[in-house]
Amino acid sequence: MTWNPRQLAQQTGRTFVITGANSGIGREAARDLVARGAHVVLAVRDTRKGEQAKASFSGPGTSAVHELDLADLDSVAAFAKGVSAEHESLNALVCNAGVMGGPQLFTAQGHERQMGTNHLGHAALVTALWPLLHSGGGRVVLVSSIAARGGRLSADTTREQLVAPSPYVGQAVYANTKQANLLFAQELHRRAGKAGSPVSAVACHPGVSDTALFTRQLSERGVGFLNPVARAVMKVALQSAHAGALPTLRALDHSTPSGAFVGPSAVGQMRGKPELLDVYSTAKDPAVAARLWELTEEILGAPLPV
Ligand SMILES: NC(=O)c1ccc[n+]([C@@H]2O[C@H](COP(=O)([O-])OP(=O)(O)OC[C@H]3O[C@@H](n4cnc5c(N)ncnc54)[C@H](OP(=O)(O)O)[C@@H]3O)[C@@H](O)[C@H]2O)c1
User: Fold this and answer.
1) Which residues are marked as active site?
2) Which of 38, 89, 116, 271 would disulfide-bridge 135, Cβ 3.0–4.6 Å?
3) Is 228 within a domain?
4) CATH code for the domain of 261
5) Which residues touch 28 (CB under 8 Å, ≥6 apart)?
């Protein structure tokens, strides 16, 4: 059924955390929620960029900038401590921040950067904020990608393949991280349901949208001088960051059930209005999701929340 952003009610009195809210899809989702009266915690690794985003929003809602580097589990813990000191409950956590491709880099804990940021950091964050999500009957939204269709995680995936993939192929690792987001959302939904938890979990993807995700890669490859041309092409060829944020907003709408997967369905799911989609075959197998869950706990050295 077609969904219209007008269906998302006013959000006065509700509190959201959005990771990577200073740029692209996260910033557009935050802008929309603030305009609907919500309080949005902008979880960003560069607080200067966070303040710039905050200054671009118009109320009646409010926002606050908090530092979060998902590529450092100590930063995740410090962020969660700060948010927990200020809030008793959360209505939603949007796990949006992400990196794509680039050279092989590692997190503060020595895990491959893309998996460390896109999946492991978010899994640690969900765990650390679980008490607040529980008391708010909150929702976790995981921002995945059509790249998840190409993910190769399986029931036999090893710890090494997650934290130190070799050979390192940037796009293949990115696909695995986005498959992990989708698998994690499905498993969180199943486990929360079984445990009778009030927390729900929904995955979404933004199609292909005009954000810094692509130009950042050029900069990291030392060809940042191509960015102005790339930006001009993307502006014409891709849907806007605002359109890319609509699946996130639909995922937050309580008419969207826990376990759902939201994204555009036109042009190979690259653009269009947010629809309820079939979960990709790469993320349907509960045995693969259970293996990812087990490995994630092993790598983080702590149990996940449910
Ligand atoms: N754009 C698309 O077409 C597309 C397609 C499929 C999926 N996605 C997904 O959409 C999500 C949002 O991406 P976007 O397209 O909006 O790209 P973007 O404009 O590059 O935004 C990415 C955000 O993630 C933040 N980030 C990166 N590493 C981080 C870290 N270690 N700790 C905290 N924040 C970090 C970035 O912060 P800085 O600004 O400080 O670097 C930025 O705020 C990502 O998960 C991406 O995989 C996007």
Assistant:
1) 174
2) 89
3) yes
4) 3.40.50.720
5) 241, 242, 244, 245
